[in-house]
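A.,

Following up on our hallway conversation. Structure tokens first:
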């Protein structure tokens, strides 16, 4: 009888330990998710602020004159209206990638599917 009580106590203690471990794992997973979200948010904010400084860099000057650049933000960062071309400019930082919409716009531009429309009222 004593062996059965000891065995039951051991099983109950193991269940409690297992419950505590699972609870700890769940809490760590929630913290990990929040940290990933916070990191992504910081990355996006960094990229958004950086976009406003890029026109003053030497790398940008190789592409367009900052005085001809207009920041629009979405779906591309800006457009430079040069004398010889209209240039759509997307600024990326780190390992960020083009969105599906940006990829489609890039494809349309590369395929010369760009139109001019004038509306008069």
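Then the amino acids I'd put at each of the 121 positions:
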């Amino acid at each position: 009888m004593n062996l059965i009580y000891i065995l039951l106590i051991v099983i109950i203690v193991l269940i409690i330990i297992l419950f505590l471990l699972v609870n700890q794992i769940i809490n760590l997973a929630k913290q990990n998710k929040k940290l990933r979200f916070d990191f992504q948010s910081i990355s996006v904010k960094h990229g958004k602020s950086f976009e406003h400084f890029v026109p003053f860099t030497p790398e940008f000057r190789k592409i367009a004159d900052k005085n001809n650049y207009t920041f629009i933000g979405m779906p591309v960062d800006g457009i430079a209206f040069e004398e010889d071309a209209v240039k759509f400019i997307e600024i990326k930082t780190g390992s960020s990638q083009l969105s599906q919409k940006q990829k489609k716009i890039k494809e349309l531009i590369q395929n010369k599917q760009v139109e001019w429309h004038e509306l008069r009222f």
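Residues 54-110 form one domain. Curious whether your intuition agrees with the design.

B.
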